[in-house]
Amino acid sequence: MPLLFYLDDPRRLRGLLSSCAAPRTLARLHALLIVSSASHQLLSSLAAAYARAGDLVAAESTATAAATASSSIAAWNAIIAAHSRRGSPAAALRVFRALPPAARPDSTTFTLALSACARLGDLHAGEAIKDRACEAGYKDDIFVCSSLLHLYARWGAMGDAVKVFDRMPRRDRVTWSTMVAGLVSAGDPLEAIDMYRRMREDGVEGDDVVMLGVIQACSATRDVRIGASVHGHLLRHGMRMDVVTTTSLVDMYAKNGLLDVAHRVFGLMVHRNVVSWSVLISGLSQNGHADEALHMFRKMQTSGLLPDSGALVSALLACSDIGYVKLGRSIHCFILRRLEFTCILATAVIDMYSKCGSLTSAQMLFNRIGGKDLILWNAMIACCGAHGRGQDALTLFQEMNKTGIRPDHATFASLLSALSHSGLVEEGKLWFHRMVNYFKIKPVEKHYVCLVDLLARSGLVEEANAIVKSMEAVPTVAIWVALLSGCLNNKKLELGESIADHVLQLQPDDVGVLALVSNLYAAAKKWDKVSEVRKLMKDTGSKKVPGCSLIDISRTRHTFMMEDQSHPQHHEILKMVAKLDFEMRKMGYVPRTEFVYHDLEEEVKEQLLSYHSERLAIAFGLLNTSPGTRLVIIKNLRVCGDCHDAIKYISRIAEREIVVRDAKRFHHFKDGACSCGDYW
DNA sequence: CGGTTTTAAA
After folding, report:
1. Most C-beta atoms within 10 A of its C-beta, which of A77, A120, A301, A493?
2. Is the model's pLDDT at A543 over the cut of 60?
3. Measuring from the CA of residue A279 to each C1', which nucleotide is nearest?
4. Which bases of strand B sit closer than 7 A to a protein CB?
5. Which InterPro entries would you find in this protein's record (predicted)?
């Protein structure tokens, strides 16, 4: 039917407008409305139709034309909603603020505006809108309240959210969902689960959105039993299990280490999207199965899905875990070819290079990223620290401050740790002080660990001890451990012993900590205490993990354990070790036998030191590379003070840069079993 | 009438 015939029938015309999405037809209707000097209502409908079709320019101009009539608010609402949907909440707020005086905002308008504030994280603007909504009489409106609730809950004002929630006269599913999700993001999963219970008591049936929040809560409680019962509930009640719900279930199981269940649920999914794969991949790599994670990453691609930035981040994480630079680099190239480098992606790639020992690649990428955000700076500062470049970390930190980005607690944790590892004591003290007094950041455990470590490492054990004593909070095991290893390295055995006693009382279940305690008693020659701790280690089922080092030479990974004679080049390696020992002594090296924690003859102790796994790995590296090469050793345990010294001498003798990286996250080292990576 | 809540990842 020709459009012209609609003119006589405004109701049909409005029907047509509300269902029409074709821009061409809308333009013709627009012309028609103008020539027939149509009513304001019709113009508003047209504006709303333009907004729905995505033509916001036309929508705004039409709405302005219709704005004199009070009913035009619907058109403005459509425009605000369209802006929000298209991902520009700022534009939505701009339209809201510029509403013509005649257009009186209604419940929908306030709801949309508050939702835009929530997307932007603008609590301040939200507060003002809430006040206007109350003045306009929407104080108890369920939609307005729900979006206000979401704004508060999402941005850490849980107290305000609860206040709003408590005085709401009526609550629907959305209200409850918002509270559940809000409590989860506020880090209070138990409270979230309780909120769900209250909802059921109130007689409200859960829908998929509420259940999603509950699943997240279960995931965060680290208590899979509740999670599994929720899963059972979903199945028993035949509730809707769409991709999102099922994906969250996979995530919950994977995050909590039930990888087989996660796999099974994943396998039963009828429809999987990139996120489904990503949660499985990140779950696998977080639980030390990086190789399997990367296998899934490949399977995802062969199943025809193109990885998005999230999937790539998960895969990069797995690459870092096993030091698989080759794949990491190819992901980097993939991003360069097909995607935009967002800060999130750049951070993940830089982190990968950092953990794989490639400082230069990390720096090169970092320098090319424009509009760096806080987390990207933090990652790069941490990267410098991990590579022993304390001064560079400090320079970066100062550059960051110049760009006007405010450092946060993580920045200082990275900075202090970098300064600590490079022995920059004065700078460390200075910046700790400035963090507290200038940046007004309250030091938490990790900061104290860094500071105490920094002082204790460089011999200022008493000063470190004073810091611990002056702490407001009760010192944690990690802080005592930092102090304790300082005592051990600096032969402050009397103080060390009292700390060891104290740490023991705190009942650490960590083997590393027990080993340190035992080592200190050994250094103090308290052999009865040593056997006591050794017994404790046995009783808790934890056996001492043998020291193990890895080195990659021309894409082959070689593993070395103390006193391991299985390597084909074993004899040559021992010869090299002896030769190095000789050269080092000529340069003034004195073996620090206090780092051998057995009751043995001095000479045997010296021999044992030179058989530490990193020494074997280095010797092997020297045999198979030429001067100027960079040797990256990956070790599962902390490098002892003696090896630390020895490495300095060896790098001078052999003219090679030697880097030892900590490999706590390498699953190859679990239970001391070192296996060769499949990727080398 | 509509409008509110919705999975991973640094």
Report:
1. A77
2. no
3. B8
4. 1-10
5. DYW_dom, E_motif, PPR_At4g14850-like_plant, PPR_rpt
